[in-house]
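dumping this here before i forget
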Amino acid sequence: MQSLQSNSQMFTTKYRPNKLDDFVGNHKLTQPFMKWLLTWDPSNKKNRCALVSGLSGTGKSLLVDLILNKYCYHAIHLTPEDERSKENIQNTIQPLLHIKKTYDDDENVLVVSDIDGGGDYGFISGLVECIKETEIPIICICDDKFSQNLKPLLPYCFDIKLSKPKYDEIYAFIYKVVTAENIKIKKSAVDKLIEQSSGDIRFILNTLQLGVKNVNINKDCQSANIFETAGHLFNMDATFSDKYATYWMAHDIHPLLIQENYVGCIMGQKDIMKCLHNLSASADALSDMDMMDSDFNFELSPYVAANCINATLKCNKRGLIKFPRFLGKISTMNKNKRNKMDYHNATFAGI
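structure:
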């Protein structure tokens, strides 16, 4: 597979649809979704919120944006990078739920992304309170609607579940891209890419743009062992293409696993100067990755992946892969926060 790299614009931006007709897959869902939005009624307690779910990369956020833009709604976004504590939701978000329109007379909609991705203590209960009192539509987006954390939310939600696009739909989209970009690729390679993408359009576009060859690892995050895949990333004999495919099998956790383990896997342990040089190269790549990843910009995802892989180029696996201590610290912080809140509530109740 060969791709032209002369155009620096990311394929994920260049081929992002601007209208619903160009959206890949799930066309049967657009009508029910639009009907829910256009006929939204606060008196209907069971359908105050639309829950948009589906595998990563199927276009959940994109579909929401296209529908809201089509009917000139104004989106109030609550994203993972925002503070999502119950207190902040009560003080910042809930007052906005009673403002039906903007100064330009556009109707407001609250869009909450990645609600199954964890968050501060009380996030879901705060969201439920928002749904109970809202005077504007609320749209929640998640990968797994069956997550135990979301149970309190489900009785109030209108279900919009995106499935993987069909083969013909993805093939037509890929044909459009490879024709426009003059990418040389065999049909067998296209079929393999479609199979390994699990319906993730971003994965397909990034793979086509980077010209990755011989992607031999199935992109099945649910069956992947993160310690094995992280070990493969540290394998000095693995090619960039293999590591790139492996990275996407658990792209949310691999950067943390690499940051936790790269020092112990660095090469040149006996030569102190070589060791320091390799540590510096890996640290620089991880620093660049962190800066790009902090923007939560999907367009930068291929560069985040590339820098993550570059951080492993001076490494080779030695022994067991350690779990990221950062996640343990976050868990402890949240536990302490919950204990502090419970103590405060108990003390306040006893006054």
